[in-house]
Amino acid sequence: MTMPDYRSEAEALRPQLIAWRRDLHQHPELGFEVRRTAGIVAQTLGELGYEVRTGVGRTGVVALLHGGRPGPTVMLRADMDALPIQEINDAPYASQVAGMMHACGHDGHVAIGLGTAALLARHAAELPGRVLFVFQPAEEGQRGAAAMVADGALADPVPDAAFGLHLWNTMPMGRVVAQAGPLMAAADTLRITVRGRGGHGALPHETVDAVAVTGQVLSALQTIVSRNVDPQETAVLTIGTVHGGTAFNIIAETVEMQGTIRTFSPIVRETVLTRLRVLLEGVTAGLGATYELDVHEMTGAVVNDARVAEIARAAAVQVVGNTAVSWHAPLMVSEDFSEFARRVPACFMLIGSGNAELGLNAPHHNPRFDFDERVLPIGVALLATTAVRYLEAT
Ligand SMILES: [Zn+2]
Ligand SMILES: [Zn+2]
């Protein structure tokens, strides 16, 4: 079977894609509160003939397309939430909601997801397998993907592979990254409490000074990345806040610190966490104090499966040409697509959406963020081609 020319079919959808994107851009919603967006997604997918489930992980939408022939199930994911940022663009389609804006491009992801769904529905009879669309809420640090997984998004049917993409404004429009291995880092948040025994500032021998202990803890923690992590690997351990004490003449009983760990490999993450505990235990015990450590896994690393990434890369070459497919160094930012990628062989792609000449190259999460909308049909062609190539290769 020769593959349809998804690039030209997607280009024909461009006015519709732009209309979807601009409507969503004018009506941003945060976190799990993406009710209007999810409503539009569910209605559009229903009209396209998909089996639609709503309210998955509170406001997520799952939709299934049956191909005309039996085969595997491929999952495609789009995220729907905006950010609490006041937009300062004056485009006619600028956000109409004060203090909220699509500054990460998720409006574009929804438009690309809907366009891909429209294209694949048109070709359903030819597809050897099923396509499962997952539109998730709360990507921005609120674990929306985990909520959808916990609510059965991957249960019926269980997908055999998953793909997703992120518009990337620091890459020129139309460039694609689809590579095996780590792409985005795991993020953990930390809260450390050092507990001593408070007392009079002039009678230190009767106390255990939590501030003095914290000073030793802070310098000990600096040895984890520099002395324990393999220099060929990457990790960040940052303590962002230190709070303790109430007055100049009182020795503090407790000090509280907050921080974050970023890693790509589970082994490195384990090394950092183990050394963190050992150092906290040793330093505080040696100085007569105790500690509490609270680690919260915010997002796992996005690590692309080699075989599935190769299918995505071949699709990218077909859609944008060899010279527009490039390698990107792994990014220290995190993405909860990792919740899908840790359960299903997956590939997360970046698609360049920046255009410096048009001034459309502000970074993500910036109040001037906007992108070159000509990326939308390219994104549709990329996702559709990737999905079909996966189904036909499996
Ligand atoms: Zn973001
Ligand atoms: Zn994002």
Share in β-strands: 25-35%
Report the bound ligands by name, code or SMILES.
zinc ion
Poorly predicted runs: none
Strand sequence of the main sheet, in spatial order?
Answer: 1-2-4-3-5-15-6
Helix and strand sequence:
HHHEEEHEHEEEEEHEEEHEEHHEH
Radius of gyration: 24 Å
The mean pLDDT is 97
**Treating each run of at least 4 consecutive H or I residues as one helix, how many helices?**
10
Strand element count: 15
Structural class: alpha+beta
Intertermini distance: 15 Å
Roughly what percent helix?
A: 25-40%
Detailed description of the structure:
This protein has 394 residues and is of the alpha+beta class. Helix content is 34%, strand content 27%. It is built from ten helices and 15 strands. The strands form four sheets. Strands 1-2-4-3-5-15-6 form a seven-stranded mixed beta sheet, with helices on both faces. The longest helix is centred in the last third of the chain and has 21 residues. The protein is elongated. The two termini are 15 Å apart. The relative contact order is 0.20. The model has no long low-confidence stretch (mean pLDDT 97). One zinc ion binds next to loops.
